[in-house]
Write a structure and sequence with these properties.
single chain, 144 residues, mainly alpha
Length: 144
Amino acid sequence: MSQHKSTWHDQHKAGLSRGQRAADLMRNGMGSWQFVGSFIGFMIVWALLNSLVLGSGGWDPYPYILLNLFLSMLAGLQGAILLIAAKRQDGIAAAMAQHDYDTDVRAEAEIARLTTVNNQQLEILQELRQLIGERGSGQKTEPQ
């Protein structure tokens, strides 16, 4: 079996409070086409029930003042939920940027270390070539 390696994002999601998870869930729900479609459907059903089916006996006749009140309350609540979720997303983005920066700093240090090792190896190779060159020029070959 392969084990799932725990990433920074997995650890962050595990540390969320119930309210934060609820805000994310509601944000994802309210930001979907399913929500838009069901919301429009609800408003059409409300208008049809109050205007055509129930006629003058509807609980919210034509200017739909009660529906207006519900829509205003929903808009206020949605704004607050979206701000909570956006604030959390900003925090996540800042934490990810810091993580990327820390990774870049470690990578830069490792690259500097590897460059130093590579330069040392090049110096050793030059010294070896010089030694081989000196030995080769110091030895005389006899004609055959």
